[in-house]
């Protein structure tokens, strides 16, 4: 039996702190993405997800060659309850082509000073 696995995304579990700026850079190994029209998106949502809910967090992105930096502001991070969520990071091209690069759990630890 043959298998065709089109899921090339990598699992990466993330632990961060409520109220702190979240900034994460990773190298996708393809410098041509810097010139490709499209948008990098990260969405964080509860593990128990209702399709009518919008994502809890969305991130902004910056591209430098093949290095992608995802940032969520401290003001957005303070609004999310501590707990366990799921996330993914995708590239959405202008031709509506979508590719997921990373996915996993997104754990938010409680903070004392917020």
Task: List the uncertain runs.
Answer: none
Q: In angstroms, what is the radius of gyration?
A: 15 Å
- Classified in CATH, the superfamily is Immunoglobulins
Number of helices: 1
Could you tell me how far the N terminus lies from the C terminus, measured between alpha carbons in angstroms?
Answer: 55 Å
Q: Write down the overall mean pLDDT.
A: 86
The helix content, as a percent range, equals: under 10%
> Largest sheet at a glance?
6 strands, mixed
Named CATH topology: Immunoglobulin-like
Shape: globular
| Category from helices, strands and their pairing | mainly beta
Give the total of beta strands. 9
Element-level helix/strand string = EEEEEEEHEE
Instruction: Determine the strand fraction and express it as a percent band.
Output: over 45%
| CATH level-two architecture | Sandwich
- Domain module tally: 1
Q: For this structure, what is the CATH class?
A: Mainly Beta
Q: How is this structure best described in words?
A:
- The N and C termini lie far apart (55 Å).
- This protein has one helix at 74-77, and strands spanning 10-11, 14-17, 22-27, 38-46, 57-58, 60-64, 67-72, 83-93, 98-109.
- The strands form 2 sheets. Strands 1, 2, 4, 5, 8 and 9 form a 6-stranded mixed beta sheet that branches.
- The radius of gyration is 15 Å and the shape is globular.
- The chain has a single domain (10-109), classed as Immunoglobulin-like (Sandwich).
- β6 and β7 (67-72) form a beta hairpin.
- With 114 residues, the protein is mainly β.
């Amino acid at each position: 039996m043959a298998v065709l696995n089109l899921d090339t995304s990598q699992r990466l579990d993330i632990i961060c702190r409520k109220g702190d700026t979240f900034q994460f850079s990773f190298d996708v190994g393809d410098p041509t993405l810097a010139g490709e029209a499209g948008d990098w998106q990260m969405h964080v949502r509860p593990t128990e997800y209702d399709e009518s809910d919008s994502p809890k967090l969305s991130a902004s992105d910056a591209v430098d060659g093949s290095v992608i930096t995802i940032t969520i502001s401290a003001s957005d991070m303070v609004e999310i309850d501590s707990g366990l969520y799921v996330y993914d990071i995708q590239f959405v091209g202008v031709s509506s082509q979508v590719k997921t690069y990373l996915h996993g759990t997104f754990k938010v630890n409680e903070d004392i000073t917020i």
